[in-house]
């Protein structure tokens, strides 16, 4: 019996490279693009008889997993997996995979774009010209400024490389310190409080978990320079959005740039839309042709290996693999 694979990432489609990969291995892909926020009940309906899923950010909760007894593998076309109850998946022997570093260049470039957007008031200047005006909004240079990086993994390092080329002073908050990299790019490892106090720009590159949720709260925003800019291209929940909005309104910090939000899509009536010193984009940091192509292929390769009972390249819960009872043929 052919195994069904559910594909929800909006950029994957029938006839594409991933589709050919799955069919060549004898799997039957079905496509249900997640165009809006998907409910648990909607997801449960899609998982009937499904052995593996290549997903975006659907809510794979304990309830969803309990209702999908045939599911053996969840493979993310991205880095974050906070929408998946990994503990519940592990308990049920479901392998969870992600695709780390596939979008690191894309996200790093977008981070620099957001920094420049804040520093040079890019949107205001472009909007002024498009409206037929010629008022100039004076900005500030990145050269000589201090960039604090909360997280110096794959993406954080790519941001550091680019910021180094701009002549910025680099601080990093990172548990696993790469001293060779730090020496090459002039990175100084510091604690978070030091980064908050000394950074002109603070850029977040952290996963969302119990330790990092609302890491940037009212107390920590108050420790930043009044002239500082906060940039988040990681996960929306790392920042307490209510506290950030208040800090921006009151001038606690000068500006912020967000590519990610606690609720996505961001509601049209969100109070964030009214903030003139907030630059926002719709979670597009990793949305490039190159990053999407690579993430789709890597996610498919992870899923194929896992469904064959082999170790995928990037399992989130590798402890499941040695004892998993899912090794079956594709047909």
From TrEMBL:
Domain D-isomer specific 2-hydroxyacid dehydrogenase NAD-binding: 112-285
InterPro entries assigned: D-2-hydroxyacid_DH, D-isomer_2_OHA_DH_cat_dom, D-isomer_DH_CS, D-isomer_DH_NAD-bd, NAD(P)-bd_dom_sf
Matching Gene3D superfamilies: NAD(P)-binding Rossmann-like Domain
Any single Pfam family the record assigns to this protein: 2-Hacid_dh_C
Superkingdom of the source species: Bacteria
PROSITE patterns recorded: D_2_HYDROXYACID_DH_2 (PS00670), D_2_HYDROXYACID_DH_3 (PS00671)
GO molecular function, one term: NAD binding
Residue ranges occupied by any D-isomer specific 2-hydroxyacid dehydrogenase catalytic domain in the UniProt entry: 21-317
Keyword Oxidoreductase: yes
Name listed for the protein in its UniProt record: Putative D-isomer specific 2-hydroxyacid dehydrogenase family, putative phosphoglycerate dehydrogenase (D-3-phosphoglycerate dehydrogenase)
Protein source organism: Deinococcus deserti (strain DSM 17065 / CIP 109153 / LMG 22923 / VCD115)
């Amino acid at each position: 019996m052919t195994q069904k694979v559910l594909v929800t990432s909006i950029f994957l489609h029938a006839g594409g490279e991933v589709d050919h990969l799955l069919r060549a291995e004898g799997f039957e892909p079905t496509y249900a693009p997640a165009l809006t926020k998907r409910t648990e009940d909607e997801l449960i309906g899609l998982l009937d008889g499904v052995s593996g899923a290549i997903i975006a950010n659907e809510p794979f909760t304990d309830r969803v997993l309990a209702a999908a007894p045939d599911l053996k593998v969840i493979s993310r076309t991205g880095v974050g997996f906070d929408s998946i109850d990994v503990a519940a998946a592990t308990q049920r022997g479901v392998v969870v995979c992600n695709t780390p570093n596939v979008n690191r260049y894309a996200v790093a470039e977008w981070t620099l774009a957001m920094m420049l957007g804040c520093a040079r008031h890019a949107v205001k200047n472009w909007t002024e010209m498009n409206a037929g005006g010629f008022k100039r909004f004076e900005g500030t240079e990145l050269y000589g400024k201090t960039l604090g990086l909360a997280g110096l993994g794959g993406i954080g390092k790519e941001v550091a490389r680019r910021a180094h080329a701009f002549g910025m002073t680099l601080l990093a908050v990172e548990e696993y310190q790469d001293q060779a990299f730090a020496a090459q790019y002039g990175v100084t490892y510091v604690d978070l409080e030091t980064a908050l106090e000394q950074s002109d720009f603070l850029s977040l590159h952290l996963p969302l978990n119990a330790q990092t949720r609302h890491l940037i709260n009212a107390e920590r925003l108050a420790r930043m320079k009044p002239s500082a800019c906060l940039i988040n291209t990681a996960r929306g929940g790392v920042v307490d959005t209510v506290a950030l909005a208040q800090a921006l309104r009151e001038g606690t910090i000068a500006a912020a740039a967000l590519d990610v939000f606690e609720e996505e899509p961001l509601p049209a009536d969100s109070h964030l839309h009214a903030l003139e010193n907030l630059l926002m984009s719709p979670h597009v940091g990793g949305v490039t042709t190159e990053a999407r192509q690579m993430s789709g292929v890597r996610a498919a390769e992870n899923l194929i290996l896992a469904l064959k009972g082999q170790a995928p390249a990037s399992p989130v819960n590798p402890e499941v693999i040695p004892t998993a009872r899912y090794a079956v043929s594709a047909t």
